[in-house]
Amino acid sequence: MVTYFKVAFVFLWMLFASCKSQNNTKKDIKIEQQTVQTKLHNNNPVIRHIRTADPSAHVWKDGKVWMYTSHDMEDAVNYDSMDGYHAFSSTDMINWKDHGEVLHSKDISWGAIGWMWAPTAIYKNNKYYLIYPHSVKGSKDDMRCGVAVSDVPEGPFKDLGWIEGVEGQWLDPCVFTDGDGKTYLYWGVREPKVARLKDNLLELAEKPRTIEYGNTNFFEASYMHKRNGKYYFSYNAGLGGFYGMADNPYGPFEYKGAINPKQRQDHHSVVNYRGQNYFFYHWQNWNGGSKFSRNVAIEYLYYNEDGTIKKIYATNEGVKKVE
């Protein structure tokens, strides 16, 4: 009888162990499937092989989405070492081709090594231009607004010098061409400025104006875009992106509040690609990143019926592939 119970116990124990093993296997498979699913849908940040920040996004005449970014160093403890702008292009918003370094401080005869901060870009005069802040002697207080040109969007870009009358602390320029062909430069730290540029893009066509935007929280990273006849002046307030709206590129702008309220150091740009609006910005918190080592991310951008912008919050998912 004892032997019978021993055999029965061993049999039941083996059956239990087998069921547990199968359950664990199913659980492992489920976890593995979830991991794959997460990898498939976590598209932010979109650039991971190098640190990139300050994305200036555009849809050029070739039908591709292009973005020009500054380049953070992996273990940076300040912004002095930022160098070498990169150009990226995509046709589906997920797969981005790195066209490499398109302009480096060593290519700029009038500036210091490093100090290649947030660039902007424009297509004008049948050429592509980078307009960028760069230090003359290696200080945030002696920045100039440089201009470089290329015949093709992927560069390389050749420096042409700087725009006279635009200097001071870090500038974070944004360049915007209106429907009438007039081009405007927005820049500044703590006090936003705007002025129309001459067609050569190397000279101001007028005296700079201080932008009235209905608040006092402007810090840096001016940006301008236009939709349905309305002009959107947006910026980084130090913690989050905010904006105002106007009927002309100078303002005054009616303050509308936050676009990206919880993203520290918001420095953004906006494009419409195949009927969908996209918001480009950068993260600090991916894979050991910091405020000096950032990565570009993308979210969908939506407008309310009255033209105001729906708030954006950073997501791991980002945007889906455009087919």
UniProtKB/TrEMBL annotation:
InterPro entries, A to Z: Glyco_hydro_43, Glyco_hydro_beta-prop_sf, Glycosyl_Hydrlase_43_Enz
Pfam families listed in its UniProt record: Glyco_hydro_43
GO MF annotation list: hydrolase activity, hydrolyzing O-glycosyl compounds
Alphabetized UniProt keyword annotations: Carbohydrate metabolism, Glycosidase, Hydrolase, Polysaccharide degradation, Signal, Xylan degradation
GO biological process: xylan catabolic process
Site (Important for catalytic activity, responsible for pKa modulation of the active site Glu and correct orientation of both the proton donor and substrate): 172
Signal peptide: 1-22
Gene3D superfamilies: Glycosyl hydrolase domain, family 43
Family: Belongs to the glycosyl hydrolase 43 family.
Protein name per its UniProtKB record: Glycosyl hydrolase family 43
Annotated source species: Siansivirga zeaxanthinifaciens CC-SAMT-1
